[in-house]
Design goal:
Elements: E1 5-11, H1 15-26, E2 30-31, E3 35-37, E4 42-49, E5 52-59, H2 66-72, E6 77-85, H3 88-97, E7 109-110, E8 116-120, E9 130-134, H4 137-140
Parallel strand pairs: 1-5, 6-9
Antiparallel strand pairs: 1-6, 2-4, 3-4, 4-5, 7-8, 8-9
Length: 141
């Protein structure tokens, strides 16, 4: 069911400054243009590494879901990890059948990669917020 790790989401106060850090210290191979996702309350910037991506996310305004996270951790930090799945509805139903809580209504929404996503409650994942992202497995390899 679960495919490869797609990215690690990192909450930050400033995606541009954070991207520079990933370039300088960790040799990011490509830094993408930042874009706003007002419906999610975040600004996003992807940073490519040789074997994965980092998704830098900063809050858009005081009502962003990141505001509380950054209030507890002003320097930012790991927000979530994202795994690929072939079928988001099958993955959602499988997680629920196993007793995991899917956040929100459970209906997939469109994530930063433009594909359907869901989030699994951190209490059901050892304290880690897990994003599941639909992507055809053959395209991700």
């Amino acid at each position: 069911m679960i495919g490869r790790l797609n990215h690690v989401g990192i909450a930050t106060q400033d995606v541009e400054k954070a991207a520079l850090l990933w370039q300088t210290f960790y040799g990011a191979t490509q830094v993408h243009e930042a874009f706003d996702m007002p419906e999610q309350g975040v600004r996003v910037k992807f940073v490519d590494l040789p074997n994965s991506q980092i998704e830098l996310i900063e809050p858009l305004g005081d009502h962003s879901p990141l505001t509380a996270f950054l209030a507890k951790s002003p320097a930012g930090g790991q927000h979530h990890i994202c795994f690929e799945v072939e079928d988001i509805l099958v993955a959602r139903d499988d997680m629920r059948a196993k007793g995991a809580r899917v956040l929100g209504t459970g209906e997939p929404r469109i994530g930063a990669h433009g594909t359907p996503v869901i989030f699994v409650h951190p209490k059901d994942s050892g304290g880690v917020l897990v994003e599941l992202m639909q992507t055809p497995m053959e395209e991700s390899l």
